[in-house]
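Hi R.,

Here's the chain you asked about this morning:
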Amino acid sequence: MNKENITIAERQCTVYSARSPACLLIQPSGAHENETLQNEIKHIAKLTDLPFIFAAFEIKNWNTELSPWEAAPVFGDEPFGSGAKETLDLIEKELIPKLTERYQLDRDIPVILGGYSLAGLFSLWAGYDSGRFSAIAAVSPSVWFHGWLGYIAQNLPLCDNIYLSLGRKEEKTRNKVMAMVGGNIRRQYELLKENGTNTVLEINNGDHFTEPELRTAKGFAWCIKEAAGGKLKDHH
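And here is the predicted structure, written out as tokens:
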């Protein structure tokens, strides 16, 4: 795959592109993920039989730009902001159009949004707020986020295909807020099933920090299959 570093709307973007891509993958990415992107791309390519274009775009303030609303700190002393709407606007109004133009993509190419941890929650929230995405990969999403269960109880997703995953040990933590992640993601899955959304909940071995790039790749591969009709390769 061809790799290119470009700037869109003052954001650094790392783009991996194959010829004649069947779908466009978008991932909000922090500096801590730069070193693992290459591995993630290799995993996705191993897991799916379809060519794709992948764009990771820079998140400058993780707790603000990916949070759907303000919330108190859960660890440390940095609160959560409410910048998710601006980030979603950036994706829809800047990122997708510029990538479509630069790489001569079909206007109706399936667009898949995915991310890990708080970026996973952001992607999940975007699937409720926008109908632009063909599939969402919410990988180990921060569904412990204050007010999340109330939000999904009162809103319906606008995306037809939603992938969920969690590490088996993630809810086994002394942090009472983060320990809610297990029950909350099971409730998330139940509500999506009740709503008729095509969804899956994959439970991975390990805690929150176990093989994030492989887990994210598995999420994107599932989404490619559901949104673009590809086949999953055996990853065991």
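One quick note: The chain is about 35% helix and 20% strand.

Cheers,
M.
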